[in-house]
Design goal:
Blueprint: H1 8-21, E1 29-30, E2 38-39, E3 43-48, E4 53-58, E5 68-69, E6 74-79, E7 85-90, E8 95-100, E9 105-106, E10 110-111, E11 116-121, E12 127-132, E13 137-142, E14 147-148, E15 152-153, E16 158-163, E17 169-174, E18 179-184, E19 189-190, E20 194-195, E21 200-205, E22 211-216, E23 221-226, E24 231-232, E25 236-237, E26 242-247, E27 253-258, E28 263-268, E29 273-274, E30 278-279, E31 284-289, E32 295-300, E33 305-310, E34 315-321, E35 326-332, E36 336-337, E37 345-346, E38 352-354, H2 376-379
Antiparallel strand pairs: 1-37, 2-36, 3-4, 3-35, 4-5, 6-7, 7-8, 8-9, 8-10, 11-12, 12-13, 13-14, 13-15, 16-17, 17-18, 18-19, 18-20, 21-22, 22-23, 23-24, 23-25, 26-27, 27-28, 28-29, 28-30, 31-32, 32-33, 33-34, 34-38
Length: about 375
């Protein structure tokens, strides 16, 4: 297991892996004439960890738009309340890039710790919290000024972060320690660590704020935590190579991505029982669910695609080619777009392929198989291989 410090050798190894393992995603546009502002539909935003961009996807049609520039190896993304700004962790840049979603324009990168990965925005949208994998800290960012605050010490190699709906507490997964650290956000004080499974990475909190689900990478399990008592429950066995988890609003169901199994496993929260796995793309990483709970979008890191899933039927409905190595994904509300060039043309990241219910599709030109595939944690030297 690697240490939490950033040695020159580790930096070199990381740089080589980042440069050689994945393909960059690129897009562009030109034009001059101005058009009237337009109302945009809800949009999913997917971060290409293999490159430097974020690709928007129209939630209603599944159509990808032109890539938006972010920082070096964007990992995770969070959209602020109101939907006008997204914040992207730049894993190899030590920064967070703000993106104006009304114009799809990146702002000045915000410096944080080494190896920023997880990000969550507190209710109200005034503060974001970012994990720094190699600094063992959680950094608050004042979103009214885009200024980082004093880092909060947590466990060894913190990865994911989630905040309770009331905004009182953040929970941070510590990969090496096998723990979750609760943090009182009013004081910035970490509490006693909660022991979970081996190699915890992503974490999500149920909409009612009572339960957190923690992905235990090395156990292929999800550990529930009773947030009223800070007590972990019995681990729930999910699919092969569990990667991320998200709760569907008002459904009582969580969905766990299975990176090595190319599936998404539903988990019924009340019983802790798993449902029939849903086919996804090649190497599913993070998952985002629409506010109405009807549709999930899954970033298929090894395949360079995003899979759209109808959660009512439990079936994939489209494979959306975005290229690169999509990892983090988030869904923003509709925003009023700034005026754009009427004659502008842009290169979209890819096409949409329809998917028949229950069947998996292969996108032409996409990577297939898991031989040599690396997820985000592989590149940092802390992730299982398949």
């Amino acid at each position: 297991m690697p240490s939490s410090s950033v040695t020159p050798r580790r930096r070199q190894r990381l740089a080589l892996a980042l440069a050689g393992a994945l393909v960059l995603l690129a897009a562009g546009g030109a034009g001059s004439a101005q058009a009237a502002p337009s109302a945009a539909p809800a949009t999913a935003y997917v971060a290409d960890f293999g490159g430097t961009t974020v690709t928007p996807i129209d939630v209603a049609t599944g159509t990808p738009g032109g890539a938006i520039q972010a920082g070096s190896n964007p990992a995770e993304i969070a959209v602020a309340p109101g939907g006008t700004t997204a914040y992207v962790t730049d894993a190899n840049g030590g920064t967070v890039t703000p993106i104006d979603l009304t114009s799809d324009t990146p702002g000045t990168p915000i410096p944080v710790g080494a190896g920023p990965v997880g990000i969550a925005i507190a209710p109200g949208g005034r503060t974001a919290y970012v994990t720094s994998l190699f600094d063992d800290t959680l950094t608050p960012i004042d979103l009214t000024t885009d200024t980082p605050g004093t880092p909060i010490p947590v466990g060894t190699q913190p990865f994911g972060v989630a905040i309770t709906p009331n905004g009182d507490t953040a929970y941070v997964t510590n990969f090496v320690d096998g723990t979750v650290t609760p943090i009182d956000l009013a004081t910035g004080t970490p509490g006693s660590p909660i022991f979970v499974g081996a190699g915890p990475t992503e974490i999500a909190i149920a909409p009612n704020g009572r339960t957190a689900y923690v992905v235990d990478q090395f156990g292929n399990t999800v550990t529930p935590i009773d947030l009223a008592t800070g007590t972990p429950g019995a681990p729930i066995t999910a699919g092969a190579g569990v990667a991320a988890v998200a709760f569907a609003p008002n459904s009582g169901t969580a969905y766990v991505t299975d990176f090595a199994g190319d599936t998404v496993t539903p988990v019924h929260v009340a019983s802790g029982k798993t449902g029939t796995p849903i086919p996804a793309g090649n190497g599913p990483a993070e998952i985002a669910i629409t506010p109405d709970g009807a549709t999930a979008f899954v970033a298929d890191q090894s395949g360079g695609t995003v899979t759209r899933i109808d959660l009512q039927t439990g079936s994939p409905t489209a494979t959306i080619a975005v290229g690169g190595a999509p990892y983090g994904i988030a869904i923003g509300t509709a925003v009023q777009k700034a005026p754009v060039a009427a004659a502008a043309t842009s290169t979209t990241a890819g096409a949409v392929t329809s998917t028949t219910a229950g069947a998996a599709t292969t996108t032409t030109g996409a990577a297939t198989g898991h031989t040599g595939a690396r997820t985000l944690m592989n590149l940092y030297g802390v992730r299982f291989t398949t």
